[in-house]
Amino acid sequence: MISLDGSALAGALADVFGQDVSAATCRCTQCGDVGTVAATVVYATDMGMVARCRACSAILLTLVTAPGGRRWFGMPGIAAVELPG
Amino acid sequence: MIRRATAWHVATVADTRRETASARRIELEVPTWPGNEAGAHVDVRLTAPDGYQATRSYSLASSGEGTRVTLAVDEVPTGEVSPFLVHDLRVGDRIEVHGPLGAFFIWTPAAPAAVSRPTQLIAGGSGVVPLFAMAEAHATAGDPSPLRLLVSVRTPEDLFFRRELAALTTADPQFRLDLVYTRAAPAEWPVPAGRLTAERVRDVVADASLRPRVYVCGPTPFVEAMSQWLVADGHAAEAIRTERFGGSR
User: Does the beta carbon of B211 lie under 8 angstroms from any beta carbon of chain A?
Assistant: First the structure.
């Protein structure tokens, strides 16, 4: 499966955060790496998307979409998100 | 920099035209559009009569204020959305767009008095769309810093915005366009067609010592290869911004 990057998540995350967080940074719970959301490794299917840490491949966040439009959003691997001012 | 609010908007198709054999340029009228920086993208959402929805991301070829935005959509043969946009969408149709998105992959002209770094843009195929927006923004602003755009395409007919890019090379003295053809080159082209190599990239790309701001956009394997070669040539990883796309949906 081909990987994308966090640009592919920008819209879906904007629905969650209420703003575009592509330029925000996030800290990986597993390895501590701090990376830009836009630079995460993203895999997208019709079911949803998974973002992985570019440094250690741990799953940072998951987004699953049901046919009716309901969504489940999880951040199992993100210790913190820093939003630019 | 202005922070632009991201929202869902209703867009009406104002104009369409064939861009290449497989791609279409689409101009949308978006009355509620807040304007966008060069490099931004939108998510386009289509809703079928039975309520089924499909959403895909497309880079904007346009930037600035105003309510018109331009996309250039390449058809993915097995795709759900792009064949409709390329073949069936009509002037007057309404679609939903979410944007502007992509705050990390944007380019803005330097402030007039600021000393600014040169810009190096590298496009693989339809990855030229957001980078064309950047080159155009550079020209519109009269930005005095050097800006180079390297585009890798299969054949001359696959180059998006080729007339506009040619016009920019005349209109913008700081703009340089480098083209690499991977399958078939024009008749008198000095270099035979072939894959972009690390050596060729080193030859045409602004030297790392100039500390250019680098933007790479294209299919994931292209972006990964470019990024590796650039870092190997001494460009700082932080100086390189990337946008990857896949062609499978």
Answer: no
Distance CA B230, CA B224 (A): 10
Q: Which amino acid is at B129?
A: V
- Of B41, B37, B33, B34, which is closest to residue B63 (Cα–Cα)? B37
Neighbours of A9 (CB within 10 A): 26
Between chains, do B6 and A14 touch, taking CB under 8 Å as contact?
yes
B46 touches A at CB < 8 Å: no
Three-state helix/strand/coil letters over B157-200: HHCCCHHHHHHHHHHCCCEEEEEEECCCCCCCCCCCCCCCCHHH
Note whether B2 contacts A: Cβ–Cβ < 8 A.
Answer: no
In this structure, are residues A38 and A22 in contact, taking their beta carbons and an 8 Å threshold? yes
In this structure, what DSSP letter does residue A31 have?
A: T
Q: Are the beta carbons of B151 and B218 closer than 8 angstroms?
A: no
Q: Do B192 and B172 touch, CB atoms closer than 8 A?
A: no
Question: Where are the alpha helices (H) located in A9-52, listed in sequence order?
Answer: 10-17
pLDDT in tens, A28-83: 999 999 999 999 999 988 778 999 999 999 999 999 988 777 889 999 999 999 98
The pTM score is 0.96
The Cα A19–Cα A15 span in angstroms is: 7
In angstroms, how far is the first alpha carbon of chain A from the final one? 35
Radius of gyration for the alpha carbons in chain A, expressed in angstroms and rounded: 12
Structure token pair of residue B181: 């053809």
Cα distance between residue B11 and residue B98, in whole Å: 10
